[in-house]
Amino acid sequence: MVAVSPPLPMLATGCAEMNQTQSIIVYRNPMEQAMWEGLMSSSSLIPIMLGLVAFMVAMLVIARVSERIYNYRQPNWMTPTMFVVSGAIGIIVANFFWI
User: What is the pLDDT of residues 7-22, one digit of tens each?
Assistant: First the structure.
Protein backbone atom coordinates (compact mmCIF):
# COMPACT_ATOMS: atom_id res chain seq x y z
CA MET A 1 0.00 0.00 0.00
CA VAL A 2 1.30 3.48 -0.88
CA ALA A 3 1.18 6.25 1.72
CA VAL A 4 -0.17 9.55 0.48
CA SER A 5 0.99 12.77 2.13
CA PRO A 6 -1.53 15.50 2.90
CA PRO A 7 -1.66 18.41 0.42
CA LEU A 8 0.51 21.49 0.97
CA PRO A 9 -1.20 24.44 2.67
CA MET A 10 -2.50 26.91 0.12
CA LEU A 11 -2.22 30.67 0.26
CA ALA A 12 -4.94 33.11 -0.76
CA THR A 13 -3.46 33.14 -4.28
CA GLY A 14 -3.87 29.40 -4.63
CA CYS A 15 -0.12 28.66 -4.67
CA ALA A 16 1.63 26.29 -2.31
CA GLU A 17 3.56 28.09 0.41
CA MET A 18 7.31 28.34 -0.20
CA ASN A 19 10.03 29.57 2.07
CA GLN A 20 11.22 32.76 0.39
CA THR A 21 12.99 35.68 1.91
CA GLN A 22 12.14 39.25 1.11
CA SER A 23 14.72 41.99 1.15
CA ILE A 24 14.42 45.74 1.25
CA ILE A 25 17.09 47.80 -0.48
CA VAL A 26 17.58 51.34 0.78
CA TYR A 27 19.32 53.73 -1.57
CA ARG A 28 20.96 56.95 -0.42
CA ASN A 29 19.74 59.00 -3.37
CA PRO A 30 17.80 58.58 -6.63
CA MET A 31 21.00 58.64 -8.71
CA GLU A 32 22.36 55.61 -6.87
CA GLN A 33 19.06 53.80 -7.35
CA ALA A 34 19.07 54.54 -11.08
CA MET A 35 22.68 53.40 -11.40
CA TRP A 36 22.17 50.05 -9.62
CA GLU A 37 18.84 49.28 -11.26
CA GLY A 38 20.32 50.10 -14.65
CA LEU A 39 23.32 47.84 -14.06
CA MET A 40 21.30 44.96 -12.65
CA SER A 41 18.55 45.03 -15.26
CA SER A 42 20.87 45.11 -18.26
CA SER A 43 23.46 42.61 -19.38
CA SER A 44 26.34 45.03 -18.86
CA LEU A 45 27.32 44.09 -15.30
CA ILE A 46 29.38 40.99 -16.17
CA PRO A 47 31.47 42.63 -18.93
CA ILE A 48 32.15 45.67 -16.73
CA MET A 49 33.28 43.48 -13.83
CA LEU A 50 35.47 41.36 -16.11
CA GLY A 51 36.99 44.53 -17.56
CA LEU A 52 37.81 45.80 -14.05
CA VAL A 53 39.36 42.46 -13.09
CA ALA A 54 41.43 42.49 -16.29
CA PHE A 55 42.53 46.06 -15.51
CA MET A 56 43.71 45.09 -12.02
CA VAL A 57 45.49 41.93 -13.19
CA ALA A 58 47.21 43.87 -15.99
CA MET A 59 48.34 46.53 -13.49
CA LEU A 60 49.85 43.90 -11.20
CA VAL A 61 51.59 42.06 -14.04
CA ILE A 62 53.01 45.24 -15.57
CA ALA A 63 54.17 46.47 -12.14
CA ARG A 64 55.98 43.19 -11.44
CA VAL A 65 57.62 43.12 -14.85
CA SER A 66 58.74 46.75 -14.63
CA GLU A 67 60.14 46.17 -11.13
CA ARG A 68 62.33 43.38 -12.49
CA ILE A 69 63.39 45.32 -15.58
CA TYR A 70 64.17 48.59 -13.79
CA ASN A 71 65.41 46.97 -10.56
CA TYR A 72 62.78 48.63 -8.30
CA ARG A 73 63.63 52.14 -9.61
CA GLN A 74 61.00 52.89 -12.21
CA PRO A 75 61.26 55.96 -14.43
CA ASN A 76 58.65 58.72 -14.01
CA TRP A 77 56.79 57.78 -17.19
CA MET A 78 56.18 54.17 -16.11
CA THR A 79 53.14 54.70 -13.85
CA PRO A 80 51.05 56.63 -16.42
CA THR A 81 52.04 54.06 -19.03
CA MET A 82 50.84 51.25 -16.75
CA PHE A 83 47.47 52.98 -16.34
CA VAL A 84 47.03 53.53 -20.08
CA VAL A 85 48.02 49.99 -21.06
CA SER A 86 45.94 48.40 -18.28
CA GLY A 87 42.96 50.60 -19.15
CA ALA A 88 43.20 49.56 -22.79
CA ILE A 89 43.33 45.90 -21.79
CA GLY A 90 40.32 46.35 -19.50
CA ILE A 91 38.32 48.06 -22.25
CA ILE A 92 39.24 45.36 -24.78
CA VAL A 93 38.17 42.58 -22.36
CA ALA A 94 34.88 44.36 -21.53
CA ASN A 95 34.19 44.96 -25.22
CA PHE A 96 34.96 41.30 -26.04
CA PHE A 97 32.50 39.99 -23.44
CA TRP A 98 29.85 42.60 -24.27
CA ILE A 99 29.10 40.91 -27.58
Answer: 555 555 555 555 677 7
